[in-house]
């Protein structure tokens, strides 16, 4: 049985720590970031991305193609991914959007 598994267990960091630090510092509540905190947040982010990729891989019948649709499907279906629902919405066509608006009674936008 084949499985998609990035090599993250050796202690090395894949994501650029400077970028992670920049994102962390964008929070107004963050004043300083220790080296250890930066390492562990970076590593936790890598593990999260690995878990997300594994979920997508398994839900797409072990396809080696990572797509937005696969990501959006996981986010919409998984209770643990609900916090990403607004960030990764399921794509719909304009026609589907118009039908949703009609169902809600908002009519046409134009």
From TrEMBL:
Give the organism, scientific name: Daphnia pulex (Water flea)
Q: Which Gene3D superfamilies match?
A: Histone, subunit A
> In this protein, which residues make up the domain named Transcription factor CBF/NF-Y/archaeal histone?
15-65
Alphabetically sorted, this entry's keywords are: Nucleus
GO terms (BP aspect):
chromatin remodeling; DNA-templated DNA replication
Subcellular location(s): the record lists: Nucleus
In alphabetical order, the GO MF annotations are: protein heterodimerization activity
List, alphabetically, the InterPro entries matched: CBFA_NFYB_domain, Histone-fold, Transcr_DNA_Rep_Reg
Q: Which SUPFAM superfamilies match?
A: Histone-fold (SSF47113)
Q: Which Pfam family, just one, is annotated for this protein? A: CBFD_NFYB_HMF
User: Does this entry carry the keyword Signal?
Assistant: no
Recorded GO cellular component terms are: CHRAC; nucleus
Q: Under which name does UniProt file this protein?
A: Transcription factor CBF/NF-Y/archaeal histone domain-containing protein
């Amino acid at each position: 049985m084949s499985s998609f598994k990035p090599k993250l267990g050796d202690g090395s960091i894949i994501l650029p720590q400077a970028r992670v630090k920049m994102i962390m510092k964008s929070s107004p509540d963050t004043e300083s970031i220790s080296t250890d905190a930066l390492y562990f947040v970076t590593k936790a982010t890598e593990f999260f991305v690995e878990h997300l990729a594994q979920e997508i891989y398994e839900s797409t019948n072990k396809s080696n193609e990572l797509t937005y649709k696969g990501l959006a499907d996981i986010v919409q279906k998984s209770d643990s991914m609900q916090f990403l629902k607004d960030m990764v919405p399921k794509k719909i066509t304009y026609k589907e959007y118009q039908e949703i608006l009609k169902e809600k009674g908002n009519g046409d936008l134009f």
